[in-house]
Design a protein that fits this description.
329 residues; Rossmann fold; Tyrosyl-Transfer RNA Synthetase; 2 domains; 3-stranded parallel beta sheet; two-stranded parallel ribbon; 6% strand; binds adenosine-5'-tetraphosphate; Trp-tRNA-ligase_bac-type; ATP-binding; EC 6.1.1.2
Length: 329
Amino acid sequence: MVIFSGIQPTGRKHLGNYIGAILQYVEGQDRADPAIYCIVDLHGTTVAYEPAELRERSRDTAALLVAAGLDPERCVLFRQSDVPQHTELTWLLSSVTSVGQLNRMHQFRDKAGTARDRVSAGLLYYPVLMAADVLAYRAHEVPVGEDQREHIELMRDVAEAFNKRFGETLVVPEGNIPTVGARVRDLKEPDKKMSTTGGTPAGTVYVDEEPASIVKKFKRAETDSGREIVRADDKPGISNLIEILAVVRGTAPNAIEHDFEGKGYGDFKTAVGEEVAAWLSPVRERYLELRQDTAAIEEIFEAGAAKATAIAAPVVADVRDAMGVGKPV
Ligand code: AQP
């Protein structure tokens, strides 16, 4: 069973990325054969960005993944642009991708807004590149947060359409969305997801953030006018904190509700903040250390790209062959 997931090198990774995706990556590396994780720097070029920064952010993200527990010997960890099969497959898959479906993607609509003529074609094409990332490895499982559900549906549709049109060539992958923590919310505006571009600074907790700052952010988290520490649709702030603490403690959310029965919101927020800070602290320390050795990170990318290419190249060759493109296999 092959697991594949990609993560953007967009600045610092937040608690939503960590709980929704990175924890699943670590858990998957001994379950899959192989688990393949990719820093998707080409996706990072679909919105405004600084060229000089992109390479640095890719290294930051790789160091964070290793600090979180990925072992480049037990998984394939690489940088997307180092494996050109991703871009080639993107073009090949475009023949079975509908523009209408791309136009309807929520992430595209949110990021493009109404200024469509000023939006890059890359942003529209983002989900096709993501489909190519996964399909190039014939991956079965894709660990992601809830916000990626629609992109998973698209890649399944693309794989099915390809197989129907050109014969059984690609594996139709399944998303793996965690049952708790699939949508970590912004601490200040809990009706929104915690987000790199759309969140509030005070409501976004970073994995490499100073412990004292994390505790402060949780203490100031938005709650509601009630008193009960229970999950409910009209209590998005408290529900979010319950889910976060459940993940940190490795228990079910109702165990958290039980533990804090009768306690006040203030004490609860402090407890969540302190436990999150203590939980992330070793990851932060390992990250700061690993990040100093840029050459070692580039070596991880190089070795990872060689392993990734060995898997993706024959798959893309099969795709070319099925489509009648280039010389026969
Ligand atoms: N709030 C979240 N809760 C749970 N999972 C989340 N993910 C993102 N936000 C949450 C999951 O993290 C993985 C990596 O996401 P990415 O590569 O898209 O990184 P990003 O663009 O920096 O993260 P954001 O916050 O999602 O950016 P915006 O909001 O600016 O687009 C994915 O598996 C994602 O589901």
